[in-house]
Amino acid sequence: MTRQEPRSERLRVEFKSDLAELAPLAERWEILNRRESDHDAPFFQSYAWNRHVAGVRSRYSRTRYKLLVATVWRGGDLIGLWPLALMRSAGAWMARSLDDPFGQLAGVSFHDAADVAPGIAAILAELRRRADGLQIEGVIVGSELHAALSRHGAAAASNSQAVVADLRPYPSFQAFEQTIKSSTRKVLRKRADKMRQAHQIEHMMGERAQIGPLLGEIFETRLQWLQRNGRTSPAFRDDAFKPLIIGLVHAEGIESLAFSLTTKQRSIAGQLGFAYAGKFYAYMTSKNPEYDEFSPGRQLYKMVIEACFGRGLKVLELMSPASSDKLEWNGQVKQVETMVMPFSMRGRLAINLTHRFMPAARRLSRKLPESLRRSLVRRLNQT
Tell me: the pLDDT tens digits for 194-244? Predict the structure, then answer.
């Protein structure tokens, strides 16, 4: 991205804490976001997505969630925006991404990349008066936001890898498929043939107005997978998550896509994702373990990639974790980190509890008998 020297005028930070204050920003918000001044996968900073999350939060999370969208101004010009919220965690009010824990990649939107560092500095100075600390999930290593936070003392509390597949060099899906290992293609072909022989398979793809039934099915199947495998998720523990997903049918400005492999009786695998600025963002995947012998996850990714190619979506953000199902489709990884910064003793204690004590407790829980661990996590997922 092109860097320019920042102008010398003083920057002014204003926080938008009322849902009604977002709509007047919509057009300028999107102009800033599509400049990709911070990183090149900005769906989760888009106006439509954040407006949808904020709307759901206003109905389900009033006592532990406060909208706090940071806007940065130079004179009368809006030059930057960071979608944030205050969330109650371990007795502290922490500044987090507006869509946390439902988002995937964090970021900011500025007119010029050169303004990101001073803009973040100005926001942090104001946040210290309003929050006990900062906790931002999914910050891309190498992004402008990551550099600015690191410069101001934020530390990485955890890290992971997100997968991206770039199909732009290939003229057709068939040309792209030829770059996949022949052994992988052979295995998938055999298992797909075996699946068709055993079941009457349907491939389904729907857009926003058509995907209502698929949304509920993908959500419930994913939740069952978590419970069955003794795992938990901050998003699924939040009572706003299901309304957030189901409400995508009516969320204006969000181009939702859902894919499903099914038999006449039941789902084999499904995926919910979003199209934005020429890219596809894989958001939630589900699969039925009864069909594991057919590699349903790998079959689904082939279907999704081919369908996206046909729609002109040649960059697929496949997100975390960096599983073999994703990587075998020429997936590349980007490093993402959770960045934390305490502003008060209360914030420091909350960060230590969340990122030191709780991970240690999770490691300890893995030593419990399987049946006990699954029962414990199932209860957590229901709370």
Answer: 888 888 777 778 887 778 888 998 999 999 888 887 777 899 999 999 999
Amino acid identity, position 82: W
Three-class DSSP category at 233: coil
Q: What is the per-residue DSSP string for 160-219?
A: EEEEEEE-TT-SSHHHHHTTS-HHHHHHHHHHHHHHHHHS--EEEEEEGGG-HHHHHHHH
Strand-pairing partners, residue 207, are 257
DSSP result, 102-152: T-SSB--EESSGGGHHHHHHHHHHHHTTT-SEEEEEEEETTSHHHHHHHHT
Q: Are 96 and 136 in contact (CB under 8 A)?
A: yes
256, β-bridge pairs: 274
C-beta of residue 335 within 8 angstroms of C-beta of residue 141: yes
Contact 11, 119 (CB under 8 A): yes
HSE-CB at 271 with a 13 A cutoff on CA atoms is 27
User: Cα–Cα distance between 230 and 350 in angstroms, integer?
Assistant: 25
| Residue 59 tokens, joined | 């109905």
Q: What is the pLDDT of residues 334-366, one digit of tens each?
A: 999 999 999 999 989 988 887 765 554 454 555
- C-alpha to C-alpha distance for 251 and 243, rounded to whole angstroms: 11
94: exposed, middle or buried (Cβ count in 10 Å: 0-12, 13-18, 19+):
buried
Sign of CA dihedral 239, 242, 247, 251: positive
Residue 380: predicted pLDDT = 47
* pTM score, whole prediction: 0.89
